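Priority: medium. Attachment 1 of 2:
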């Protein structure tokens, strides 16, 4: 077990922020002192991690060696998010409020293939339904795995398994019109038309263009993949939430020059704040 004390690390906010669809709340209870204790499960990188949080203390069910090799980078724990928030223009009261509201969000370093399929599925969709689609996809096409306690979970499906899937079977996973996109993208990867290892090594602009060769991947989805898989924090996905905020709060344009290199990190605060409607 590894314990972390960090004022800028909220597993709940990360779970609800629309960047990770397999991070799942397993248990929630109130402690005697009034603090809320939450337990989460996360399958990633061929492993299954249990995460507990009470207050600012986060406990991860892994060895120190595994934490250093996998989860420290995954949760971007070497980045100072307090410094990032402090860099916000104090006269930008909207962005200051959004960052304060979602100050526990961190930009995850997730698996590229999983993010490609996840954000193809995310189009014209909401978080609850995306989670259900991905769960059904994993149960039908993912390899069955076992937790240390013997419980079963499913790995994310490989490109090969999805390339061989029929459209009707993918429809049964509630993918709708995205079924064809998922199958054709998987087939494209299997044929080597887009090399995921090469994409991982590209800079932001090159990766953005390369990803759009895949079926169902436009500029918004490609930016999501760049931000949440490749950790290109200059990527700034624009969906209906962000469009609304840009129109209402930044009619003369978002100050990208001021936040060059990390506008995408700030985008997550904006997205989460608007998504949650300023609710606690």
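Attachment 2 of 2:
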């Amino acid at each position: 077990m590894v314990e972390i004390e960090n004022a800028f690390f909220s597993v709940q906010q990360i779970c609800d922020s629309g960047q990770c669809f397999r991070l799942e709340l397993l248990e929630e209870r109130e402690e005697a002192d009034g603090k809320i204790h939450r337990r989460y499960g996360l399958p990633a990188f061929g492993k299954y991690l249990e995460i507990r949080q009470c207050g600012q203390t986060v406990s991860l069910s892994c060895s120190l060696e595994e934490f250093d090799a996998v989860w420290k980078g995954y949760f971007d724990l070497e980045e100072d998010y307090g410094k990032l928030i402090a860099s916000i223009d104090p006269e930008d009261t909207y962005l200051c409020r959004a960052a304060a509201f979602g100050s526990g969000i961190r930009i995850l370093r997730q698996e590229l293939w999983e993010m490609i399929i996840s954000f193809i599925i995310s189009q014209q969709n909401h978080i609850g339904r995306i989670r259900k689609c991905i769960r059904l996809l994993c149960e039908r096409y993912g390899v069955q795995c076992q937790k240390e306690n013997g419980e079963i979970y499913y790995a994310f499906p490989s490109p090969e398994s999805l390339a061989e899937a029929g459209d009707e079977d993918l429809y049964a996973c509630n993918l709708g019109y995205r079924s064809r996109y998922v199958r054709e993208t998987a087939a494209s990867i299997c044929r080597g038309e887009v090399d995921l290892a090469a994409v991982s090594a590209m800079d932001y602009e090159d990766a953005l263009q390369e990803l759009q060769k895949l079926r169902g991947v436009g500029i918004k989805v490609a930016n999501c993949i760049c931000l949440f898989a490749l950790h290109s924090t200059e990527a700034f996905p624009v969906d209906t939430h962000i469009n609304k905020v840009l129109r209402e709060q930044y009619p003369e344009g978002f100050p990208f020059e001021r936040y060059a290199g990390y506008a995408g990190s700030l985008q997550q605060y904006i997205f989460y704040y608007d998504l949650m409607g300023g609710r606690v």
